[in-house]
Amino acid sequence: MTDSAAMAGLDPAVLADVLRLAGSSSFDRIQDQIRRTGGCSDPIHLQGATVTRDRATGQVLHSYSTDSEPGGRLRVACGNRRASRCPACAWTYAGDTYHLIRAGLVGDPAKGTPDTIRDHPRVFATLTAPSFGPVHNRPGNRPCRCGTRHDEDAPELGTPLAPDTYDYAGAVLWNNHASELWRYFTIYLRREIARRAGLTQREAHAQSRVAFGKVAEYQKRGAVHFHAVIRFDGPDGPDSPPPAWATLDLLTEAIKAAAARVAVDVPPAGEQPARVLRWGAQLDVQPIGAFGDGEEITEQAVASYVAKYATKAAETTGTVDRRVGNKEVLVLLDVPEHPRRLISACLDLHPLYPERKLRDWAHMLGFRGHFSTKSRRYSTTLGALRQVRADYRAQQQREALGLPDLDAPEATTLTLAHWSYAGHGHTSGESWLAATIRRDIQLNRETAREALRDEPDLNGAAA
Known about the structure:
The chain has helices at 3-8, 12-23, 27-36, 87-106, 168-197, 201-207, 248-261, 299-310, 328-332, 337-349, 382-401, 428-454; strands at residues 44-54, 60-65, 74-76, 122-127, 209-218, 224-233, 264-266, 275-277, 284-289, 297-298, 372-374, 413-424. A hairpin with an 8-residue loop joins strand 7 and strand 8. By secondary structure, the protein is an alpha+beta fold. It is globular. 38% of the residues lie in helices and 16% in strands. The chain starts with a helix and ends in a 9-residue tail after the last helix. The protein has twelve helices and twelve strands.
């Protein structure tokens, strides 16, 4: 499709702004800025300047100011992880999460994890929420309890069979306490490992470590569940092998026992009864196979799966991805009935449990935890991955300007910078341009992947 064909269906106001942009003298630079952000949907606008000087002579080697930019502003990517907010930045976040999880599975010395961790026992565990009432589902080859065989994308999937008796309060309170359930699970897991090894916790800790990386995902019914890579390490973390007693079977049994022990008490409030929150019965623990050799769950599949859900949140259930102040706005936003009832339950429960901040997290159906977390020694960090990318781009810029490498002995430069926030977002025409650039970048990536996949190997077969 040509640009003119793509523009033909635009809203007249958007089309007018696109034509204004195309006719402006700064169009090329605006387009270049948007391309540098990867087609970010909501870029941050900065104003400021940088000056690079020779430390010894004080000579100015390079200077830059946003005064020369269109509108006196520089656009930088927003960095939002939500695909519903910014697909471009979410793609970057998903890629970083993929490399973080993969480094903890196959090893990557450059990211601080040795290749030998591939020999450590590790599993992919899924911990789910309990039932809050029967919902429409797809139980294998059998019809749903309503008597219908639902399609995979049927809108009623995950919604209650009897909405008036569904425990909406219990569902949002469970989501709200899910992070505490996970915290207690990690505590009990170490205790169960020690008990099964016939050691005290201190002795077990001196001989082994447990590392994990996890991501939260919303089920269609709006309940959070966690996917986690859990790995046995030696006493020095990933750099040392686990002891002989730290087997895959021991880790699997300890996970099941720890999940069964977790209980979080919620006191009564108003008409709400006291509750004991627990994990659901659908606990799944599967070994992760190296190279996919004899195991259903492979390293590649696990890293890709976790990365996929790192950029998704409650909006996958039909709710909104921004905070909600009152119930009336849910009608205006046309939120479906089931997520609307969950959000309403959060707003109704907030006065009863003010310390739980249910009103602030109503759009998340009560969940207030981090979507992607890891233990300290699992692998690298997202911050470290972002820094590597920033350093690489900075080095590219220095080479283009003819400045010495910062790590070189002869590097004697000093860079002073001052930046201030100047707004965010696009005009309607810029938004269309950003979306077009993002689609082009995505198409180029997919084409490159296909070419790599079809490239013949040394034996002449397709890779």
